[in-house]
Design a protein that fits this description.
Blueprint: H1 8-14, H2 22-29, H3 38-48, H4 50-67, E1 76-90, E2 95-113, H5 115-183, H6 188-223, H7 247-257, H8 259-279, E3 285-297, E4 308-320, H9 328-395, H10 400-435, H11 442-447
Antiparallel strand pairs: 1-2, 2-3, 3-4
Helix pairs in contact: 1-2, 1-5, 3-5, 4-5, 5-6, 5-8, 5-10, 7-9, 7-10, 8-9, 9-10
């Protein structure tokens, strides 16, 4: 028969003495009916987070800027019109006259050979790739920030539950020590030791409550949901293994798809085309031109006193050959060559940095998984040690401080185990971010590990 999965708080409460009130146990262990999953809160953050919205709008602006590069290879056309009044005065022969002139002109130009414009057009494609990589980096960052805030709040909730459970256990041990002192079976030292430990736990509870309040505000601020309530992990939980289980494969993935590497690669392409633009300063340009002009005098002119109209059309090609620009072109070429080499150096530096980060996070996740297994074993051992110390205290072979220390060790182990599990899940997401493969679909795997709503 399959039993329902228990939350960390429920498993903890099962280890409490039977005197723990049922209402308190239910309050700590029961998930809220309105609790949200990680995917739900991420979707809220995607629509609310100002940092991500800024990145998305910047992406739209970058796309529009890239489209502007087409203007250099497409035809340009313009229409102009004007009207003027001309006055003529002359003494010999005597002329005193004025007339109006109206003018309208339509012109068009089609670049035929402009290497610099075509290089700019080529840069537009690299700029689109650059903008897309920047948006993907912002999206991956939002996934990690949301997950971090989500698990921070869960960890704060667990810590407060563990501290309150420890307070209850220490309070019972304090009452037990007082009863033993009253009947003369223990010394005042046991009572004072229990009282000191109880006062310490009270201070820890105050700190845990404040930390929970801060973590809740942080998550609410990120996702734009008032009083957000994340669903807890179901325990026992089978943490996902590293796949692929080879750090070299993760590094190879990062070199191909990581947003930072792709941005650096796009910068190299843009810099190389900038060199071509500079070299185009030595090359001629050729444009096809066409114009149509209408000039009309609706009243008399100074010469013949009659209305006139002139229509003029022009079609041709315009060749422009640069000869000397004061060495500006040569120096511009030298500048762009240096900037291209800088972009290549930045690309190599980015690759090395990304690869180092991937390796560090990979081994961190691997170590975290080992810590989880060790802490699970330590939890069982700490529980056994506490039970043994309690029994030893009752029969007189252990003292009160032994029981208190065993209680502290057990609750500390439980806190460390819960935090280690969260760190492994976060580490898996950070590893995928470091390799550039993190997507919102990766949150679905974590959703399956949460308590059912």
């Amino acid at each position: 028969m399959n039993l329902p999965t228990k939350s960390p708080a429920m498993r903890l409460l099962m280890s409490f003495p039977r005197s723990v009130p049922v209402a308190v146990a239910a309050l700590l262990a029961m998930p809220s009916a309105h609790a949200q999953s990680l995917v739900t809160l991420y979707e809220s953050a995607r629509a609310f987070d100002a940092t991500y919205q800024s990145a998305r709008l910047q992406y739209d602006a970058n796309l529009a800027r890239a489209e502007q590069a087409k203007a250099g290879i497409l035809p340009n056309a313009g229409l102009s019109a004007g009207a003027s009044r001309i006055g003529v005065q002359n003494n010999a022969p005597s002329i005193n006259s004025s007339f109006y002139t109206q003018n309208a002109s339509l012109s068009a130009l089609q670049p035929l050979y402009r290497p610099a414009n075509w290089a700019t057009y080529g840069q537009a494609f690299s700029q689109v790739d650059l903008a897309r990589a920047q948006l993907e980096a912002a999206s991956q960052d939002l996934i990690v920030r949301t997950s971090q805030a989500y698990f921070d709040l869960l960890a704060a909730q667990d810590t407060l539950a563990f501290v309150r459970a420890q307070k209850q256990a220490v309070a019972e041990q304090l009452a037990f020590a007082k009863r033993n002192f009253e009947v003369g079976t223990s010394t005042i030292t046991d009572t004072r030791e229990a009282q000191a430990r109880y006062d310490l736990v009270i201070a820890q509870e105050i700190a845990a409550e404040n930390d929970l309040r801060v973590k809740k505000i942080a998550l609410d601020q990120l996702v734009g949901v008032a009083e957000s309530q994340p669903r807890a992990l179901a325990v026992p939980v089978a943490l996902p293994p590293l796949a692929p289980a080879d750090v070299t494969a993760w590094v190879e993935q990062s070199e191909a798809v990581h947003p930072a590497v792709r941005q650096a690669r796009s910068n190299v392409e843009i810099a190389a085309l900038e060199v071509k633009k500079a070299e185009a300063g030595h090359k001629p340009t050729l444009d096809a031109t066409a114009s149509y002009n209408v000039t009309k005098n609706p009243t008399n002119t100074a010469q013949n006193g009659i209305v006139s109209r002139a229509n003029t059309s022009n079609i041709g090609v315009l060749l422009n050959v640069p000869i000397f620009a004061g060495f500006a072109t040569q120096n511009r070429i030298r500048e762009t060559l240096s900037l291209r080499d800088k972009a290549l150096s930045d690309l190599e530096g980015t690759r090395r940095s990304v690869a180092q980060n991937v390796r560090a996070i990979y081994f961190g996740v691997q170590s975290g998984q080992g810590q989880v297994k060790a802490l699970e074993a330590a939890e069982l051992s700490s529980q056994s040690a506490l039970d043994a110390n309690k029994l030893g205290y009752q029969v007189g072979v252990r003292i009160n401080i032994d029981v208190l220390n065993s209680q502290s060790q057990l609750f500390q182990t439980k806190r460390d185990l819960a935090l280690a599990r969260y760190n492994v899940l976060l580490g898996d997401l950070r590893l995928r971010q470091a390799s550039g493969t993190l997507t919102a679909d990766d949150l679905l795997r974590i959703n399956q590990l949460l308590l059912a709503p």
